[in-house]
């Protein structure tokens, strides 16, 4: 059982924030383009749509959007690329992918639209994240 | 052949639809050919995400340099029309 590891050469550090930004977008595009493969591998057709996967990837990228140090960004990109490689080469299992990217804090992302009508706006924001 | 900056109406409408869904805009928000992505609250990551959504919907691949040029809905529609016709050629 050989893991077909993609080349894990670490590219030199980004020279500037601008270059790091480009790398983030390239990574995001690469991830989006692997979405059909991922859906095929883990049989996610009935569970989630590609658009939802795209937005959960974007959500994770956006969590770090305020970082200004290019080296930190490179490190985060390295971790992201590693995660993407793991998922695409089927080193993860279906429940990992579903738990991490399909189900949000409150259950399946597409089904939770109408549940929390009683709670206030403040509480909704409070439950989703620390920063609002 | 000069630069084609206007997309077909049908393409523009489809793009508007995808953009509205992507950015979760309120029902009454008007999105037209001239609407710039930044004006409707899309940051750069949103723009890339919209371009990827368009890639999927129209079954095309947008390269890096063309993606940089996209500022308005019309730019996106024009690029889509160009890529679709190149694909079918």
UniProtKB/TrEMBL annotation, chain A:
It is found in: Mitochondrion inner membrane. Keywords: Electron transport, Membrane, Mitochondrion, Mitochondrion inner membrane, Respiratory chain, Transport. The keyword Electron transport applies. One of its GO terms (cellular component) is respiratory chain complex I. Its main location: mitochondrion. GO terms for biological process: response to oxidative stress. This is NADH dehydrogenase [ubiquinone] 1 alpha subcomplex subunit 6. It comes from Eragrostis curvula (weeping love grass).
UniProtKB/TrEMBL annotation, chain B:
NCBIfam families: acyl_carrier. Carrier of the growing fatty acid chain in fatty acid biosynthesis. Gene3D superfamilies: ACP-like. One of its GO terms (molecular function) is acyl carrier activity. PROSITE patterns: CARRIER, PHOSPHOPANTETHEINE. Residues 9-84 form the Carrier domain. This is Acyl carrier protein. Its main location: plastid. The keyword Transmembrane does not apply. It is found in: Plastid, Chloroplast. It comes from Eragrostis curvula. Coiled coil: none annotated. It comes from the Eukaryota. Belongs to the acyl carrier protein (ACP) family. Keywords: Chloroplast, Fatty acid biosynthesis, Fatty acid metabolism, Lipid biosynthesis, Lipid metabolism, Phosphopantetheine, Phosphoprotein, Plastid, Transit peptide. PANTHER family: ACYL CARRIER PROTEIN (PTHR46153:SF16). GO terms for cellular component: chloroplast. Transmembrane segments: none annotated. Pfam families: PP-binding (PF00550). InterPro entries: ACP, ACP-like_sf, ACP_chloroplastic, PP-bd_ACP, Ppantetheine_attach_site.
């Amino acid at each position: 059982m050989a893991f077909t590891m993609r080349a894990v050469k670490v590219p030199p550090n980004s020279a500037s924030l601008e270059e790091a930004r480009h790398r983030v977008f390239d990574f995001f595009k690469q991830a989006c383009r692997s979405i059909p493969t991922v859906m095929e591998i883990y049989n996610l057709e009935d569970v989630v749509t590609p658009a939802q996967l795209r937005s959960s990837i974007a959500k994770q990228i956006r969590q770090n959007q305020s970082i200004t140090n290019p080296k930190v960004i490179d490190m985060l990109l390295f971790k992201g690329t590693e995660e993407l490689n793991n998922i695409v080469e089927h080193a993860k299992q279906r429940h990992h992918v579903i738990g991490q990217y399909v189900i949000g804090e409150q259950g399946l992302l597409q089904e939770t639209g109408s549940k929390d009508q009683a709670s206030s706006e403040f509480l909704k924001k409070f439950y989703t994240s620390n920063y609002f | 052949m000069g630069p084609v900056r206007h997309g077909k109406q049908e393409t523009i409408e489809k793009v508007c639809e995808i953009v509205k869904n992507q950015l979760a805009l309120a029902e009454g928000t008007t999105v037209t050919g001239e609407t710039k992505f930044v004006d409707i609250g899309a940051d750069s990551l949103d723009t890339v995400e919209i371009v990827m959504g368009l890639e999927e919907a129209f079954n095309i691949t947008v390269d890096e340099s063309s993606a940089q040029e996209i500022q308005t809905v019309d730019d996106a529609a024009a690029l889509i029309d160009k890529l679709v016709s190149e694909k079918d050629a």
